[in-house]
Amino acid sequence: MQSLRKKFPVLNQCIYANTASAGLLSEDLMEWRQGHDLDFLIGGSEMKAKGFAHMPEIKKTVGKFFHCKPENVALVPNFSLGLNMLLEGLSRDKKILLLQNDYPSVNWPFETRNFNREYVDIDEHMEENIYEKVKSGSIDVLALSLVQWVSGVRIDLDFVKQLKKDFPKLLIIGDGTQFCGTETFNFEKSGFDVLGTSAYKWLLAGYGNAFFLVKDTAMDQFELKGIGNGSVDNDQSKRNSIPFCKFLEPGHLDSFNFGSFEFALNFLDEIGLEHIQAHLQKLSNTAKTAFSELGLLEQSVLERKQHSTIFNIKGDEKLFKRLTEENVVASPRGGGIRLSFHFYNTEDEIDAIAKLLKS
Known about the structure:
The protein is about 40% helix and about 15% strand. By secondary structure, it is α/β, with parallel strands linked by helices. The chain folds into two domains: about 1-25 and about 275-359, Aspartate Aminotransferase, domain 1 (Alpha-Beta Complex), CATH 3.90.1150; about 30-270, Aspartate Aminotransferase, domain 2. A seven-stranded mixed sheet has the order 2-8-7-6-5-3-4, sandwiched between helices. Strands 9-12-11 form a three-stranded antiparallel sheet, covered by helices on one side. The protein has a two-stranded parallel ribbon with strand order 1-10. The longest helix has 21 residues, at about 275-295. The radius of gyration is 21 Å and the shape is globular.
């Protein structure tokens, strides 16, 4: 992983512990993007037409990466827009189970539509409490982030798979924005019926690109209303035979943004997600040990078996300012300081942060 750091110039200036806010732009992707716009400059509409025609290939790349059929992939500008379009087609009589203080773009769309809702706390007993709520028989939909944006707590994916097996009628919707790009993930074999993800964080694809994966068995739960010329790929004869995911693509798909996404997926594929996952596990273990020894982590985090590489440490504005002055890039979140580490980070960087915190 050390050699890959050269592709991210920001790392020469700071300790970048902020991928949970925004993933870094690589030199390779920057060069591709420059080439794309140069082609647009020279080719105009002819070049853009080729870009639109390439979208099915991008869906194939996404499908291969996440083990999902290409026709079950929808490309959207961001997770928030995609979820809102989906929920416009979900019956209001569904009872929803959410996590308390989950990412606003997960919870708010259900809340503003006045769905009947229940909540579970994000703590060491989260999975057990979810199971008990679902077991009660009153829950139709579970919606949650795979990794929590403030604390870095991650749901047990084996638990989700078992939950779906035990309650097959339960619709499970996941936000993978803080997860996808950190380890291998097989959507078809997972417990999720729907997975949406913005790609500007751990997937390192820049802004303006996201995707939704939808299983065949979940499609009849929605009556989607979003529609436009993009839904039929400029062929109005297809008006009465629109596939499910094309209802989530009513307008033009930008070849710049989704081409960036395709480039980023191929880049991660070349590195190997299994190598990324192994490195991140080391970083997670190192950080958890260092920050727990300093008494900076919540007990609920310490008692969980698995954790991501996102950590929220106890700290005020003064400490955040000190870290910033020492060229540590992080984010104030949830009353603490959020530090997040990707494959371009090192254990030495975590040790350096720990030393700063001790002082």
